[in-house]
Structure formats: structure tokens, C-alpha cells
Write a structure and sequence with these properties.
Elements (H helix, E strand, L loop, with lengths): L1 H31 L18 H15 L4 H12 L14 H31 L4 H17 L4
Helix pairs in contact: 1-2
């Protein structure tokens, strides 16, 4: 009976730590999902299996246990690894290219396409056949029609 009470006591004393552990993991995964893995670069820290991502998740856990807020943890990560660690970097002078680079590339490509299409159209309009060339083409077409060749 003595061991039974001891087992119940250990179980009851461990339950609050299990609850906080699950809450801690949920909060850690929420923060880690917003941070980019520096090794994989296309995965979040929460999804990455890289050694660095495992270490960063452990750092986040330790900071949560130390009582830091989510914003304080993100600030710490940005100070240590730069804005690149954030999936949504803030809009500032150093990140303008990250925010507007894709649009600039799109408009640059669209401009090149428009210019090349206009030049192509101008070449087609100016390259019409002369009267002599038209007569030669008609003669070739009449000749192929007479011989029955499909060309």
C-alpha cells in the first residue's frame, strides 16, 4: 500500500509539468514556425531537421522557460542572425530589395518583352516584298500549282 501511495503522489506531482511541457512545446513551435532555418532557408525552424534548427528550437525553449515573451525571443533571434531569419522581414532600408525585388524583376522583364515585341512588329511591317519579289513568288506558286506538288 505504501508503494501505491508513492506512485500516485509521483504521478500527481508530474502532471503540472506535463501540462506546462505541452504548452511550452506549442508556444515554441508557434515561434519557430515564423523563423527561417539558416541552413535549409526554405523551411521554418519548426519543420527543419538540421542540427542548427534543433539547437535554435532548444534556445527558444530555454528562453520561454526563462520567462521571455514571443517578441523578445524574435528580437533576440534577429539581433543574432539578422532580418533574414524572419519569414516576414520588416520594411526598412536594408530590406527594400527583399520586398520590392520580385516586382522590379517582373516589370523589368515585362518592359523587355514589350520592347522586343515592338521591334519585331516594326521589322515585319518594313520587310514587305518589292514588286519584283512579289512576281517571283507568284511565279513559284503558279509553278508548284501546275505540277501538283503540295509545296
Amino acid at each position: 500500500m505504501k508503494y501505491w501511495r508513492l506512485a500516485v503522489f509521483c504521478l500527481l506531482s508530474a502532471m503540472p509539468s506535463l501540462a506546462t511541457s505541452a504548452d511550452l512545446e506549442k508556444r515554441m513551435l508557434g515561434i519557430a514556425a515564423e523563423l527561417r532555418c539558416l541552413v535549409c532557408q526554405n523551411e521554418s525552424i519548426a519543420a527543419s531537421r538540421a542540427d542548427l534548427a534543433v539547437d535554435l528550437r532548444q534556445q527558444i525553449r530555454e528562453q520561454i522557460q526563462a520567462g521571455q515573451t514571443n517578441d523578445e525571443i524574435r528580437t533576440y533571434m534577429v539581433e543574432r542572425y539578422g532580418d533574414f531569419v524572419l519569414y516576414r522581414p520588416p520594411l526598412k532600408a536594408t530590406t527594400l530589395l527583399l520586398w520590392f525585388g520580385p516586382m522590379l524583376l517582373f516589370f523589368f522583364g515585362l518592359t523587355i518583352l514589350m520592347v522586343s515585341l515592338r521591334r519585331r512588329r516594326a521589322r515585319i511591317v518594313t520587310s514587305s516584298l518589292s514588286a519584283e519579289e512579289r512576281q517571283q513568288a507568284d511565279a513559284l506558286l503558279d509553278q508548284s500549282a501546275d505540277t501538283g506538288n503540295p509545296r
